[in-house]
Write a structure and sequence with these properties.
Keywords: Metal-binding, NAD, Transferase, Zinc. By secondary structure, this protein is of the alpha/beta class. The protein has three domains: 168 residues, 3-Layer(aba) Sandwich (Rossmann fold), CATH 3.40.50; 117 residues, SIR2/SIRT2 'Small Domain' (2-Layer Sandwich), CATH 3.30.1600.10; 53 residues, no CATH class. The chain is built from 14 helices and nine strands. Helix 8 links the parallel strand 7 and strand 8. Helix 2 crosses helix 3 and helix 12 crosses helix 14. The longest helix is centred in the last third of the chain and has 21 residues. It is elongated, with a radius of gyration of 54 Å.
């Protein structure tokens, strides 16, 4: 590969990796590896159909032209060809290119996929809502008269395989209703069913819807367009590519073309930035090698990160292998007495440290006298606390009985200060019963010369 080509290919890979809003346009080239026979080879679909209709003179390109409906023989060849193509599409498997488009969707990189194919292989990998079929849907049948759509069934498939178009059931019901009601049947025709595809020279029945969708995508400002498997010879597709290219270039994006055949450099040089001449699936495999993370799901990426962390952690836990230390043997030291360091056996030399113990010095603790301060009077107390007065010591003969009785009265608790509920119920009789022993104690103390501080 030339150096210039290698550099450009590296730029393509880097740009695809960084792109966030990608638009993809696909053609028949991406379905060749899906199991659908091509049209022009010796064992292609056209030669298979030709074998069933040897008298028909129909070219391959005429099978997709609106003019074939003018001739019954050409129409019969068309029906047989479409039934064979439909049967092949049912057994077709998504290619690497189809899977690549699905990956872009899963990574939130895909803005829209426009396809010229009618085989509906994208539906096998849940891409139906993200794909715009520019040339119709082979898996649907439509009426040539009322344009009603139908799904394929065994009856329709058998008729088409034999070169016959099924009649539209809705047109038939309407015709019979007018017939039984006695209404005129002038101008009433019964339509025929044909595959719901767009032929050359035919107006697209959903052109307005496609135009609205395209304008919406252009407003989203895509940053990349990848064209895969198409020769860009259809006029409508050419116009689509040029419109997308202008928007993408205004945003600083790129247009990449991938196909087996080259384009005309003169007509597309202002619209296409990179042209890769390759099979589409081979190009995708190359991307998978160069950008592996793009093809991994989020779960696979998370699992890979965990494995990397685990490998780093295990490498940190491994013992560090140190080289064997060389020990210089001094004269007079035997070889067996020398210490050699080896990874299998570590020798730890403990150094003895003499710690000089200092004598324990006892510290004398000075005694501190704490002066008790009187408890402050609560703010609710209306009077100030009285200072304690000391009674003078009296001799036993000087203490009279009346003085003893007055002291007992001062020590007796009031009714509202009794702690026991029973004392408040029994009244003053119990108080008088308790006065006598208390008085005796005080009297005896007074006789001994003991006095009490009054508070």
């Amino acid at each position: 590969m030339p150096a210039d080509t290698s550099i450009k290919l590296h730029e393509v890979i880097k740009f695809i990796s960084k792109s966030k809003k990608m638009t993809v346009l696909t053609g028949a080239g991406i379905s060749c590896n899906a199991g659908i026979p091509d049209f022009r080879s010796s064992d292609g679909l056209y030669n298979m159909v030709k074998a069933k209709h040897p008298k028909a003179v129909v070219r391959g390109q005429d099978l997709f032209d609106i003019s074939l409906f003018r001739d019954e023989m050409s129409l019969s060849v068309f029906c047989t060809f479409m039934e064979s193509l439909y049967k092949s599409s049912l057994n077709a498997k998504p290619t690497e290119t189809h899977k690549f488009i699905k990956i872009l969707k899963d990574k939130n990189k895909l803005l829209r996929c426009y396809t010229q194919n009618i085989d509906c292989i994208e539906q096998h990998i849940n891409l139906k809502l993200d794909v715009v079929q520019l040339h119709g849907n082979l898996h649907k049948l439509s009426c040539t008269n009322c344009f009603s759509q139908f799904n394929w069934n065994e009856e329709f498939q058998t008729l088409l395989a034999n070169g016959l178009n099924p009649e539209c059931s809705k047109c038939m019901d309407k015709y019979q209703q007018r017939l039984y009601s006695g209404k005129r049947l002038t101008g009433q025709t019964i339509g025929l069913l044909r595959p719901d595809i767009v032929l050359y020279g035919e107006h697209h029945p959903q052109m307005e819807i496609l135009t609205q969708g395209l304008n919406s995508d252009l407003k989203s400002r895509p940053d990349c367009l990848i064209i895969m498997g198409t020769s860009l010879k259809v006029a409508g597709v050419k116009s689509l590519v040029k419109s997308l290219s202008k928007i993408i270039h205004n945003k600083g994006g790129k247009v990449i073309y991938v196909n087996k055949t080259k384009l005309s450099a003169s007509s597309w040089k202002n619209y296409i930035d990179y042209e890769v001449v390759s099979d589409c699936d081979e190009f995708v495999r190359m991307l998978k090698t160069e950008i592996p993370d793009l093809f991994l799901t989020q779960e696979q990426l998370d699992s890979e990160k965990l494995n990397q962390v685990a490998v780093k952690g295990s490498s940190l836990n491994k013992p560090i292998v140190k080289p064997e230390a060389k020990v210089k043997i001094e004269p007079g030291i035997k070889q067996e007495d020398a210490i050699q360091y080896s990874p299998e056996r570590e020798v730890t030399i403990k150094q003895e440290v003499n710690i000089k113990q200092e004598p324990i010095v006892k510290r004398e603790v000075e005694s501190v006298s704490v002066k008790e301060e009187p408890i402050p009077t609560p703010p609710t107390t209306p009077h100030k606390p009285k200072q304690a007065t000391k009674l003078k010591r009296k001799s036993p003969d000087e203490i009279s009985a009346n003085e003893v009785h007055s002291r007992v009265k001062r020590l007796r608790p009031r009714n509202d200060q009794l702690s026991s509920p029973a004392s408040s119920i029994n009244g003053s009789e119990e108080e008088e019963e308790e006065d006598e022993p208390v008085a005796k104690v005080l009297f005896e103390n007074a006789r001994k010369g003991i006095t009490l501080d009054q508070h």
